[in-house]
């Protein structure tokens, strides 16, 4: 993945997961499991000094899943900044 876009995508994933956790009153690890299947995924993205990597495909899968299960009646979907196939639509809902 291009180094210049990776921090933007990483921030999107973390932002969406934290917003989902807050909207659903969940721990971040539970939100991570629901959105990615791995309870430690979001924590690994935040790890310093060497955060975990991910692919553009995984980014799109994560965002599409989030849009599909998002509690729209409880919270707006957060603004994301990455060039995702999922970023402009709510059609996956």
Write the layout of secondary structure elements.
Layout: H1 6-24, H2 28-36, H3 41-46, H4 56-69
Helix pairs in contact: 1-2, 1-4
Q: H/E element string?
A: HHHH
List the uncertain runs.
Answer: 87-93
What global shape is seen? globular
* Record field, number of beta strands: 0
Distance between the termini: 27 Å
Number of helices: 4
Spatial extent as radius of gyration: 12 Å
Beta-strand content estimate: under 5%
Specify the helix fraction band.
40-55%
Please give the largest β-sheet: none
Structural class: mainly alpha
The averaged pLDDT comes out at 88
Structural notes for this entry:
The protein is mainly alpha-helical. The chain contains 4 helices and no strands. The chain has helices spanning 6-24, 28-36, 41-46, 56-69. Helix 1 packs across helix 2 and helix 1 (6-24) runs parallel beside helix 4. The relative contact order is 0.20. Residues 87-93 have low confidence and may be disordered.
């Amino acid at each position: 993945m291009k180094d210049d876009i990776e921090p933007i995508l990483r921030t999107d994933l973390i932002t969406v997961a934290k917003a989902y956790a807050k909207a659903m009153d969940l721990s971040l690890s539970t939100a991570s499991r629901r959105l990615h299947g791995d309870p430690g995924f979001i924590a690994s993205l935040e790890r310093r000094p060497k955060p975990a990597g991910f692919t553009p495909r995984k980014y799109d899968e994560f965002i599409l899943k989030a849009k599909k299960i998002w509690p729209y009646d409880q919270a707006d979907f957060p603004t994301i900044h990455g060039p995702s196939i999922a970023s402009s639509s709510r059609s996956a809902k």
